Amino acid sequence: MFLGGANPNLPVDVLKSLLTAHGSHHVQQIQEFQAKQFDEEAKTWAAMSHHMYMIADALADGIAKQFPDKFR
Fold first, then answer.
1. d(Cα 11, Cα 58) in Å, to the nearest integer?
2. Are 58 and 22 in contact (CB under 8 A)?
3. With pLDDT > 90 as the criterion, what percentage of the chain qualifies?
4. For 33-50, what is each residue's pLDDT tens digit?
5. By C-alpha distance, which of 9, 15, 14 is closest to 62?
6. At CA 6, angle to CA 8 and CA 67, rounded to 5?
7. Cα dihedral angle (61, 67, 70, 71), rounded to 10 degrees?
8. E strands along the chain, which residues?
């Protein structure tokens, strides 16, 4: 995986887990749209939004560890 190879502070297993969960949310969201389960899709979107922050935090932490002089 590119991100894990580009930054030793981003463990590949963690990245795969985060991105797999994100992809699963998208699949769930699409299925809910198709089934016209709009209330459920809204809940899925809320979970996706929260999860995107988790991904961003993991990436930011890895980058900050890789370049500590730029992040003080």
1. 10
2. no
3. 75
4. 999 999 999 999 999 999
5. 9
6. 65
7. 20
8. none
